Amino acid sequence: MGLQPPADSDGMEWILAGATPLDRLVRTMAFLRSDRGCPWDRKQTHRSLTRYAIEEAHELADAAERGEAAAIKEELGDLLLQVVFHAQMASETGLYDLGDVAQGIGEKLWRRHPHVFGEAVAETPEDVERTWERTKAVEGRPVGKGLLDGVPRSLPALGRCLRVSERTARVGFDFSGPDEVLGKLAEEASELVEARRGGDPEALRHEVGDLLFATANLARHLGVDPEDALQRCNDRFMTRFRFVERAIVEQGRDLQDASLEEMETLWQQAKRDEPGSGAGG
Q1: Which of 37, 134, 178, 226 could form a disulfide with 219 if both were Cys (CB 3.0 to 4.6 A apart)?
Q2: From 39-48, 85-94, 136-145, 173-182, the region with the lowest mean pLDDT
Q3: Domains in the chain, please, with CATH?
Q4: Alpha carbon 102 to chain centroid distance?
């Protein structure tokens, strides 16, 4: 079942006969999955490919962060390959093909944009978000599925926390605002201190998790993406530490030979020299 190369055809001739680059990509994937194709490609399953889709999405995010057009184009191609690969596997069992995937997402876009394709009105990005969520609610969830069942466990922990709290907030299970979350942070920090005194590793893990969850909630209430904020913090830390390391190495010394006081002095110098140093951190 699904798209298959003719048994008596030349592989490249059949692939290149496609009218568009997307046609050729789909035919290439079908040929790779055929008996005359690649043993690695034939062996793959939806589950075995999952990690590659995740990796490609992260590589696309990195390219977008750098703002490199050529790299973004390349990573979009890599991500598109994952979609075509999964669709080809599904078509081989008669479930659906790439056209069905495109049809489904097209219909969803029409439904979720009633202010464009219907009579609804949404004049600001915030209006659009509210319209999107209302439309999703009307579509409903599959029978037996809860509000949080669609949040993937494979998301980075901070991103998953953000999705969970966003969904529960839709039904009113939320803090009243940033000040209330700050109070929750103080409460969780106090409980972490108590857990540390108790010396129970599992209790410590529990309280650290609660503190991180509350921090992510605070970020959401402040309109900050916690994953992006932490990544930027990582970048600042790494830039500053590399400055410290380079300064010490240029003195002909090893990091292990430098005192904490020396490293802290260099760290503060790195903070003063970086753009936007007046912002703190």
Answers
A1: 226
A2: 136-145
A3: 11-96 (1.10.287.1080), 157-224 (1.10.287.1080), 227-279 (no CATH)
A4: 21
Q: Own/partner pairs for 192-196, CB < 8 Å, 24+ apart?
A: none
3-class secondary-structure state, position 70 = helix
Question: How far is residue 151 from each of residues 55, 147, 161, 168, 201, measured CA to CA in Å?
Answer: 18, 9, 9, 12, 28
Q: What pLDDT is recorded for position 235?
A: 92
pLDDT tens by residue, 211-223: 999 999 999 999 9
d(CA 194, CA 210): 13
Give CA–CA dist 136/146, Å, rounded.
Answer: 14
Burial label for 216, CB within 10 Å (0-12, 13-18, 19+), is buried
pTM equals: 0.68
What is the rounded distance in angstroms from the CA atom of residue 206 to the CA atom of residue 75?
A: 37
Averaged pLDDT score across all residues of the chain: 90
Contact by Cβ (8 Å): 26, 39: no
What the block records as the tokens of 30 is: 């079908």
> With contact defined as beta carbons under 8 Å apart, do 161 and 213 qualify?
yes
163-172 long-range CB contacts below 8 Å, 24 or more apart? 165/213, 165/216, 165/217, 165/220, 166/220, 169/220, 170/133, 170/137, 171/147
